[in-house]
Design a protein that fits this description.
Length: 744
């Protein structure tokens, strides 16, 4: 509740004691250092709590707040006096390190200064270093191999104190929570009502809430099937879940969650546990209750998962009791059956094998044959499929508007919004088509748009039909008097592919454009802690391109400085607990623009090919308005912090456009193609990724928060006020029509 609602819940204490004021002052001061301030109500509630209880509560609260901003770990870069001590010549530093590594010998003078007395052997790497040649107050790791060293080594010296940073930005307000049950129920209900799949953080929160609130509050309809499966897989009540199981995939999702897996069906838990007998019976009964043809087709959709599940279900042992279920498994497992086996309308028995002819196969064949009448008739059977195929049907000249008007009430709102945005952008070919396929991590793939444009009249008719339906849905909500809209909402996308979105300090949907902080400097940061049995070398890198996406340079471990515009804190090559490792890159935005840089791609590489989810802790982000003063990591200045997660080795969190002074939140991963991953091997690929993502999201092919807001305002408000990008304000009398939306 602290993270989601900024509310602190605790049991009231038994009254203050002599040390309450002292402890509260310490907690409040530390919270301010982290960027938070207590409300009058929260301060008053804490001020009547006994000091011992207050100390425990304060420690828990501060630990949570610190973790939100990434301040729960020590941030010690390679060069502790960064950015001042970052070498000017990276190649010269490399030569010096290499020569020392090759020629230094035990009990021999230092190669550079001939000193004998201050040469130390470092643990665990064994390199010989001289404190005269290598500044022990600046290096936090071995100067030769950049691995973390034993902090008790005689080489390690304390770094000089840094001047404090004065930062006058506003703090985040924390208030006291009054009714935990009411707040939990409100958040729980809001998560259940989401019309898009939940992010990993939201899923964790929902699991915690369902265990507190139970499943009695679950509504009869849950818009997202994954959310339904997460609830009932966590709290498996057979009688309550049955009305929600409409397809075999619903049954599969619930079962996998109950077995400890994820409802997104990307992969099964390993090893797959045995299924208890009551759950086996429940699954077989649920499958048997579905229409035969639908069951067989739906099981085939996730055939590999069902084959593995079938090893635990043993459906053929109960063939007489559950014949439809046995048929579905026979089709995907190529099981021999009798020729007189009843196969249903969507299947035939040929040579003792069940063969399916699915709806998708029939529709694809009709589209390939350009049989417009048959394709439209088939698509109308499934309203969602009709909306997803609108583009193809329009290109074939199909009269889709009457069918769309009839099907739209049965289609989910996110599907309608996505179709509206994609069709609206079809007046000309897109610069690139970008796809985000399902998987353990979010990858993006781009291709040229070879589709012919759709006539404007057809686009207008389809968009009007969709908007009419969306306006009708919004009009069912409570009416509003005056609504104020900000045109900046056009830069925020409607969330999609949130299943594997990074956990963030400030949740930003993928593809959104957000203004850069009003400051000349940004400091990017990366921190990770490796597992006990494996060395992990992550690298924070920035690739710099001009307006035409031609390479201007890079700032990484091979180039610690780029002119006066970018400075790296040094490359750490290991991150053992408890210190871990941190890397930083300082960006001077005016200096970069002066050097001809327009686009910057922020990248995190796993150099030695260890996936992010192998780390015990791995996150990155950026701070603003940083100078040489103050601690290297100041949580008050953190603008964004996000986790590195999933089976990924190359993460592209953000792309900066200095001319527009905007940041495109990408949150995508690249599939690795090399053995060792660094900026040098991926500079061309990253240029294409940056260009394609900016072109795709800039073309309006994804629905924006503006689309949602204007539809809601048109349907519910009496008066609409629009704040334009230039600061001007327009006022309108609302009308629930697509024409009014166009005027807005």
């Amino acid at each position: 509740m602290v993270r989601r609602e900024r509310l602190v819940f605790f049991e009231p204490g038994g009254g203050p004691d002599a040390r309450t004021d002292e402890v509260l002052a310490r907690v409040e001061a530390r919270a301010a250092e982290l960027g938070y301030v207590f409300s009058v109500g929260l301060f008053a509630a804490l001020n009547v709590t006994p000091s011992a209880e207050l100390a425990g509560l304060g420690d828990d609260l501060l630990e949570h707040l610190a973790k939100e901003r990434g301040a729960h770990v020590a941030h010690v870069p390679l060069f502790r006096n960064f950015p001042d001590s970052t070498p000017e010549d990276t190649y010269e530093l490399y030569l010096e390190r290499t020569l020392t590594h090759v020629f230094a010998s035990p009990e021999q003078p230092c190669l550079n200064c001939t000193n004998v007395d201050h040469v130390y052997v470092l643990d665990p790497c064994g390199h010989l270093v001289c404190t005269t040649c290598w500044d022990a107050r600046d290096y936090s790791a071995c100067p030769i191999c950049h691995r973390r060293i034993d902090l008790d080594s005689p080489f390690a010296q304390p770094a000089p104190a840094r001047e404090p940073l004065w930062d006058a930005r506003a703090l985040t307000l924390l208030d006291v929570g009054r009714d935990l049950d009411d707040t939990a129920t409100r958040v729980y209900t809001a998560l259940l009502a989401r019309t898009t799949p939940l992010s990993p953080q939201d899923r964790e929160d929902l699991v915690a809430l369902v265990r507190r609130c139970g499943v009695e509050l679950v509504p009869a309809h849950i818009p997202v099937r994954e959310t339904m499966a997460l609830i009932f897989g966590t709290w498996l009540e057979f009688d309550l879940v049955r009305p929600h199981l409409k397809t075999a995939t619903d049954v599969l999702r619930v079962l996998i969650v109950a077995l400890g897996g994820e409802a997104d069906l990307v992969k099964l838990p390993k090893p797959l546990p045995n299924i208890p007998r009551p759950i086996r019976r429940f699954v077989l009964q649920s499958l048997e209750g579905l229409p035969q043809d639908q069951l067989a087709e739906d099981v085939r959709r996730h055939a590999q998962h069902w084959k593995r599940i079938g090893e635990k279900l043993h459906p053929y042992e109960f063939q007489a009791r559950y014949p439809n279920t046995a048929l579905a498994f026979a089709a995907i497992r190529r099981t021999r059956v009798d020729d007189d086996f009843t196969a249903g309308a969507a299947a035939t028995v040929t040579r003792e094998r069940v063969r399916l002819r699915t709806f998708a196969t029939q529709l694809e064949e009709a589209l390939a044959a350009q049989d417009v009448e048959l394709a439209l008739e088939l698509a109308q059977r499934r309203p969602g499929e009709l909306v997803r195929r609108l583009d193809h049907l329009l290109r074939l000249g199909a009269p889709v508007v009457p069918a769309l008007q009839q099907a739209a009430p049965d289609v989910a709102t996110p599907v309608l919004l996505t179709a509206m945005a994609s069709i609206r952008a079809r007046t000309r070919p897109l610069a690139k088509r970008v796809f985000f396929p399902r998987g353990e991590v979010t990858n993006a793939y781009a291709t040229d748009d070879k589709r012919p444009p759709i006539p404007q009249a057809d686009i207008d008719a389809v968009v009007d039909a969709i908007q009419h339906e969306l306006i009708a849905r919004a009009a069912r909500e409570e009416p509003l008097d005056t609504v104020e809209l900000d045109e900046g909402l056009k830069d925020l996308t409607v969330p999609f592919r949130q299943r594997h979105a990074a956990r963030q300090l400030h949740t930003v949907p993928r593809g959104s454009r957000i203004p850069l902080p009003d400051a000349d400097t940004l400091r990017l940061f990366l921190h990770w802690t490796q597992p006990d049995d494996q060395r992990v070398d992550l690298d924070l890198s920035v690739l710099l391109y001009d307006a035409g996406w031609r390479m201007r340079g890079q700032c990484d471990y091979t180039a610690l400085r780029f002119e006066d515009g970018a400075t790296h804190s040094g490359d750490l090559t290991s991150a053992p607990a408890p210190l871990g490792a941190s890397e930083f890159v300082d960006l001077n935005l005016p200096a970069l623009k002066a050097a001809g840089v327009r686009h910057l791609v922020m990248v995190v590489f796993s150099y030695n090919d260890v996936p992010f989810d192998a780390m015990t802790d791995a996150f990155a982000g950026f701070m603003s308005n940083r100078t040489e003063q103050g601690e290297i990591f100041d949580p008050r200045t953190v603008e964004q912090r996000f986790d590195l997660q999933g089976n990924a080795k190359i993460g592209v969190p953000a792309i900066l456009d200095l001319d527009q002074h905007q940041l495109l939140w990408a949150d995508v991963n690249l599939p690795p193609t090399l053995r060792f991953h660094s900026a040098a091997g991926y500079r061309a690929t990253l240029a294409h990724v940056g260009h394609d993502l900016q072109a795709y999201f800039g073309a309006g092919a994804r629905p924006s928060q503006w689309d949602v807001a204007v539809i809601d305002a048109a349907a519910r408000a009496r008066r609409v006020v629009v704040r334009r990008r230039d600061g001007s304000v327009d006022s309108y009398t609302a009308e629930p029509t697509p024409a009014f939306i166009a005027r807005l």
